[in-house]
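@channel sequence for tomorrow's demo:
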Amino acid sequence: MRLFTATLATETNTFAPMPTGLADFQAAGGYFPAGQHPPQMTLFSAPLGAARQRAAAQGHTLIEGLVAMAQPSGTTTRAAYETLREQLLADLRAALPLQVVLLGLHGAMVADGYDDCEGDLLQRVRSIVGPGVVVGAELDPHCHLSPQMVACADLLIAFKEYPHTDAAARALELVDLCLAQAQGRIKPVAAVADTGIISIIHTTREPGRGFVDRLQALEGHDGVLSISVAHGFPWGDVPAMGTRVLVYCDGLIACVPAPAPAQAGAGAGAGAGARAQSLARQLADELYALRDELMRPYPGIDAALDQALAVQGGPVVLADSADNPGGGAAGDATFVLRSVLNRGLTGVASGPMWDPGAVRIAFAAGVGATLALRIGGKVGPMSGDPVDAVCTVRALKADLVMTGLGGTRQPMGDCALVHTQGVDIVLSSLRSQAFDTDLFTQLGCDLLQKRLVVVKSSQHFYASYSKIAQAVIYIDAPGSVTQDLNSLPYRKVQRPRWPLRS
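structure tokens (generated this afternoon):
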């Protein structure tokens, strides 16, 4: 069979101050024209990696199209989206005829004039290949699962884990199911149920862990092909934002009732559509019932620091999720750093702070230099005011590459480790959240000797940092990825939607 794969992905924070332009997609590590993707997997090109494996093993012909990814940020410009979309679609047309199309998408990309970029792209793909070609896509669970996306794709499969450590595994599932459909061995029938809530499900703790384990136990039995939970992306103001459950059942199998009580109409011999809808509704209702337990406590900055200092031993890892570049924030907010310095806390490591100007100055000064630096607070009000401090340059590393999710590579650009008043700060010239502890250790910062480690990340840090943490605390701080959703000026989100006020 002839397979085509391509990627166009970013996560859009419609409240973030910086637009996402074409240059953001064309930055190093995120842009590969057709046929030029390297052997190493990148997060949203996982379908390409999976397709390479299956094509090599099974003798399929694989045509590789555009791969373009950008760091999460503000609304994508119309020119950027339309340029990349047309490049991908041109690659698709050149690859015809095809039996399978496999796309790596995020699911929460918003551009000027396009609230649903993925729905728009999938509709155009479908119009090119026609109804007889299998179209599948892998999604980030923090996606907006729109009706157009579901209608235009045969299969959509989202990562199940948060942190997203299972991109490769889900991509293999996608490829295998799409191939099975193309060979006539299955006939996926989709159903979606809206939970009525906004819920970010951490799979590192209960009840999220048990819920996801149960989803995986249901797959592959009684005609259930795949179950995905679209958490939604709360910082994207679009009509489809919210938590939904997507179930695919096999229309070639006579389905049996669900193991737990379900809605009427899903009895023995019921059609795949009824079975899928019943199961999706049942799981959505379960998530609604778990909504309070799924939420994490987010103490304010001072309360979080007090909690951390009360822990015996260290290090205690604190997550500054409101300034998470992985959610579209600038990554240069100073609110937590300023509190740490004002309280005179020592034995602290913090990063990454996005500040290309400060990095350039540190490189010019050299290791061992002591100089006045203005750190962070550059982008806008949600970044706070800059911190002025006399700093010593402890280490410099050009083109530092941090380990990303699933062993992927995350370029950080030139990075500097500076020290001031008992605090080590990693400054980076490229925006990224903290994924792995090697962000610090490559600069000679021993986290095991620290009392507190402050990272700019919401949850992806957990896979690595929890291994060294005595405790993990999530901070409620100001920023573009604030946890106070009722403070955001939503205009398009469909209500009622817990926990938003009507």
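heads up for whoever presents: Confidence is low (pLDDT under 50) at residues 255-269.
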